[in-house]
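Sequence only, no structure available. Ideas?
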Amino acid sequence: MAESKSLLSIRGVSNSYEGRSYGIFGKKENKPVLDNINLEIAPGEIFGLVGESGCGKTTLGRCILGLIDYQGEIDIDGLRQIKGRRGPKGLEMAGKVQAVFQDPAAALNPVKRIGWLLEEPLRVHRLGSRGEREKRVDEVLDLVGLDSSYKTRRARELSVGQKQRIAIACALMLRPRLIIADEAVSALDVSVGAQILNLFRDLHASLGLALIFISHNLNLVYYLCDRIAVMRRGRIVELGTAEEVYSAPKHPYTRELLSAIIE
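Reply:
I predicted one. Tokens follow.
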């Protein structure tokens, strides 16, 4: 990590959702999801967020992306995140953080050609001439290990692994400094998932990207990440280097996660 200044600063972030009410006069109670999360992530860091389903890790990712409301403060490269940000500030934030989600098929319009899908963020934000946009599409396809012939293909014609590469390419189009990968390999078979993990490593090395890798699989997080935060019931219960958390876990829940890994 070449810089000491934090790229991502999360201070006192909490989140809750409105629970169900029972009976005609029943009151709805807020159900806490995140409870006072504090994190600092450095430029170029690969950071792992691990925990069982429902622990709040995906919710935290959505807060960082500005997709849902939260209490507290989130700053990305000096810019305060605000839900639903639009206008010039929205473009500025889009150029700082992007996401890759679990199901690439759901993220890509199946009938549109890949070139159109990749160029869309540039068109929406009115960036570059047509020639410049096409050049950027070719550059990003090359970054994710695909050639320019994919521009004329449709998402429905691709394998799951190819679709995830395209989803990653879409996330790269605006040159973000941070990517949030939420269970980005859990829908892939082992060999394809390993290729995507290595692609993230290559992108980190070549572009200096920071990455938040969200997963329930501690093995994957250990393989990829510099540091790891373990989440349980909306809180961070352990934080340390990948080696510290994996080899000498301090919290009983982390030890429980490790014991559940199938060799």
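The chain has two domains: 1-16+32-96+177-263, 105-175.
Hope that gets you unstuck.
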